[in-house]
Backbone:
């Protein structure tokens, strides 16, 4: 681990780390007694590419299964002890092939032609805690998705059956696919400077690069996956922790907006970052915080992306507190909270009708000079983010502003992330000991993630800047296909 000191206006301490490089996968014998070369027939998984970024599509094909009228393909991933899976039923074509990107699934986790359905439609495995979310913690290593082909149409009950021998005998073959957030030509730099805590991801080289500050919401800690992905597109992106991390406060209620203001100045004084202004992005209460930050920082912020946030002040969130002064907040309605067992619907805890809203609690958005992009799911069960965003844009229009755009997605839930991540429709809040509804359905939510990510990248490139970059996964790469010997057919 190398340490360097870089200074422009203040001393900045970094710790740098690079992606780990896994060893290449190799063909292997899967279940079944040894057979002669004459007796044995070969079938193969072909995954193109075998290692890719998380926001890229891949092609998954299984060949040589002509003897089986029905085939199940299952995808499985484990991250930090949390497991997720999806499966789909296919009928092989006349050539004995299943091509996920062109053949329809007729059952399982999704139906129809969905090239990335085995990834977007993953759900927590049986036995996982309700509200478990797939989050990549260590972005220097890939998510490893294990793909398995089975003969027959199997279900979750079969995968979790105590009859292991029967399931084993159904296996036709398997392979592993690498999905990366961090690129080969990206530096990961841990940041502890003044009060600022987080991680800076940037393309290799001196730059300067267009800068982004990246915030998440009530989960706390330091969530790095989106910033690491931004860096593969030529941005220097700071994943900024603001509570429940290292020596920071444990309660977001204690966070003052001056902390985020300090982070903006830190970025603009960083020699790796263009000093003409940065972009900011946040989701949920992080989206609320970046809206407030844009009203504070003026020309320092050129573009603001608010995902499922609100331009109204709400209790116990950082946006309401600046330099020790607390703004008046929206009313809350405890009697509207719906609880079923341990799952809570808080969508009406907040105002959800225009007549419920106290308009004196809106932020002074007219003070911002940046461009705004609001991204919302119309099935957001956390709060009425689409209504809040529309009211915010109406407020801007009333003040003679046209610096805004809204993307509203039917069927999308609260947590809109980069493409091909599975929907998180329920989220466990450790601080509350409760599972909160986030909403959304996988089919439409996956469309929202793909479209909004593309438009977010274009938005930042237009208003913050671009730099040359070459996206390259830090794996053995170049194979384009992994062939796996299958059991006797």
Residues:
């Amino acid at each position: 681990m190398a340490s360097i000191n870089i200074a422009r206006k203040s001393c900045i301490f970094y710790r740098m780390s690079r992606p780990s490089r896994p060893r290449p996968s190799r063909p292997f014998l899967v279940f079944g007694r040894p057979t002669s070369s004459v007796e044995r027939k070969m079938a193969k998984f072909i995954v193109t590419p075998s290692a890719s970024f998380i926001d890229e599509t891949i092609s998954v094909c299984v060949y040589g299964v002509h003897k089986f009228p029905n085939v199940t393909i299952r995808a499985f991933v484990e991250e930090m002890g949390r497991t997720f899976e999806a499966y789909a039923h296919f009928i092989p074509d006349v050539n004995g092939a299943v091509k996920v990107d062109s053949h329809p699934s007729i059952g399982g986790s999704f139906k129809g032609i969905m090239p990335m359905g085995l990834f977007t439609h993953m759900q927590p495995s049986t036995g996982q805690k309700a509200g478990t979310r797939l989050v990549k913690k260590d972005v220097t290593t890939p998510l490893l998705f294990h793909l398995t082909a089975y003969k027959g149409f199997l279900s979750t009950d079969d995968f979790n059956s105590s009859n292991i021998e029967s399931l084993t005998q159904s296996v036709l073959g398997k392979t592993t696919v690498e999905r990366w957030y961090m690129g080969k030509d990206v530096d990961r730099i841990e940041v502890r400077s003044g009060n600022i805590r987080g991680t800076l991801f940037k393309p290799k080289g001196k730059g300067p690069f267009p800068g982004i500050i990246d915030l998440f919401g009530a989960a706390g800690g330091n969530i790095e996956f989106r910033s690491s992905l931004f860096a593969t597109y030529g941005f220097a992106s700071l994943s900024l922790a603001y509570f429940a991390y290292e020596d920071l406060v444990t309660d977001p209620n204690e966070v003052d907006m001056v902390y985020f203001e300090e982070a903006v100045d830190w970025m603009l004084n960083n020699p790796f970052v263009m000093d003409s202004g940065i972009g900011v992005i946040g989701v949920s209460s992080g989206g609320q915080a970046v809206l407030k930050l844009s009203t504070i920082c003026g020309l320092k912020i050129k573009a603001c992306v608010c995902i499922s946030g609100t331009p109204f002040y709400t209790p116990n969130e950082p946006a309401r507190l600046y330099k020790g002064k607390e703004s008046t907040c929206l009313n809350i309605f405890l009697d509207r909270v719906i609880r079923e067992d341990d799952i809570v619907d808080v969508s009406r805890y907040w105002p959800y009708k225009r007549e419920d809203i106290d308009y004196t609690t809106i932020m002074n958005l007219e003070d911002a000079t940046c461009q705004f992009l609001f991204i919302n799911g119309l099935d957001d069960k956390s709060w009425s983010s689409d209504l809040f965003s529309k009211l915010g844009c109406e407020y801007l229009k009333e003040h003679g502003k046209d610096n805004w755009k809204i993307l509203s997605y039917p069927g999308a839930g609260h947590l809109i992330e980069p493409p091909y991540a599975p929907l998180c429709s329920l989220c466990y809040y450790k601080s509350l000991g409760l599972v909160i509804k986030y909403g959304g359905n996988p089919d439409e939510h996956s469309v929202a993630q793909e479209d909004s990510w593309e438009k977010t990248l274009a938005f930042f490139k237009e208003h913050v800047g671009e730099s040359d970059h070459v996206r390259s996964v830090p794996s053995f790469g170049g194979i384009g296909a992994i062939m796996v010997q299958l059991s006797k057919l």
User: Anything to note?
Assistant: Residues 227 and 254 are 25 Å apart (CA to CA). The first strand starts at residue 2 and ends at 7. Confidence is low (pLDDT under 50) at residues 1-17, 21-42, 476-489. The first helix runs from residue 117 to 120.
